[in-house]
Design goal:
The protein is mainly α. It has a single domain, classed as Monooxygenase. It is built from five helices and no strands. One of its GO terms (molecular function) is phosphatidylinositol-4,5-bisphosphate binding. Residues 1-23 are annotated as: Disordered. Keywords: Transport. It holds the Pfam family Exo70_C.
């Protein structure tokens, strides 16, 4: 499931009053695993590109933050606090500050 799909998925809404269903645990695991995969891919792909123009590089990073970081922050804030796994480090590999740092390294060596 993509970040947008997760944010719009009413079945994964969780409150501390209700225990998380096993199916929801699996959905969250799959979702975080997919997000990790996407971030890894973005990181690897953007290491290949160098933009010498500082203004263009800044613009590209700013736009990347709008398109990638902002939805990720919402997703992370909504789901990262949920106890859905005994191995959180496996699924919650990136935090919003980590992703921002990754984006800030785009387009240069």
């Amino acid at each position: 499931m993509t970040i947008r799909e997760m944010l719009n998925n009413p079945s994964v809404k969780h409150s501390s009053d209700n225990p998380l269903k096993e199916g929801d645990r699996e959905v969250l695991k799959a979702s975080f695993a997919k997000v990790n995969e996407i971030i890894d891919t973005l990181r690897n792909q953007n290491q290949q590109y160098i933009v010498d123009d500082a203004h263009l590089r800044h613009y590209l990073r700013t736009e990347s933050k709008k398109m990638i970081l902002e939805p990720f922050k919402t997703y992370y804030n909504q789901f990262a606090h949920i106890d859905f796994t005994q191995n959180p480090e496996k699924y919650k590999r990136y935090t919003p500050p980590m992703l921002e740092s990754i984006i800030d390294s785009f387009f240069e060596h």
